[in-house]
User: What shape does this take?
Amino acid sequence: MTVRKNQSALTADEKRRFVAALLELKRSGRYDEFVTTHNAFIVSDTDDGERTGHRSPSFLPWHRRFLLEFERALQSVDASVALPYWDWSVDRSPRASLWAPDFLGGTGRERDGRVTDGPFSASSGNWPINVRVDGRTFLRRSLGGGGRQLPTPAEVESVLSIPTYDMAPWNSASDGFRNHLEGWRGVNLHNRVHVWVGGQMATGVSPNDPVFWLHHAFIDKLWAEWQRRHPGSGYLPAAGTPNVIDLRETMRPWHDTSPADLLNHTAHYTFDA
Assistant: This one.
């Protein structure tokens, strides 16, 4: 069984293996396929039309499946690798261990956001940005440059306490756990972290930054914790809802999985704590 660990608890060898698997997926071209998929859904998901990956109830199961696909790709390179998660409510500083040169590298330089250290820097030659929203071909970050600080444990707790998964109008205006976690209203957890990292993470091609996977692994962990706390409050909507994915409706681009198939993460992996 795959165990997803807090990045702060990874051994030096686990970090090395994770980075090596990322670099091999990038070298083979498989990594950029995930970036392309994510960007396509960012562009197509709108409040007033069909929405699957974002701004909708299926935000969480869609990304759970997306992460599973990526984790399996990593494990095809190295079977020992699991997705780590970044608890940004605790590791809230640009000086946190995940930004060290031996792991993800740090923030970008002031004039253009270019990451200059670590295995994904432009100087390494191993991480060209091929799926992009502009002409810049290097990884960019601006850690903390977006104004707001990362979410606090108290803010996380306030979202976990919301008892209803989602509700009409099933988009970025909705109340409920999903939308407060996604960040279109309330204290803003998920979206705020993307903006805090900056660079490509603040765009539809956010998976260009490997921290995307650690961020979403923690979002997935928060969903699992919400499910544990609210066992009687399942996924909504159940059926017959236009433009969004109902409980047993299959999701693009896979067409073989519904939210109902993804409610139990322990069928695929566990978390370290």
Observations:
- Residues 164 and 233 are 6 Å apart (CA to CA).
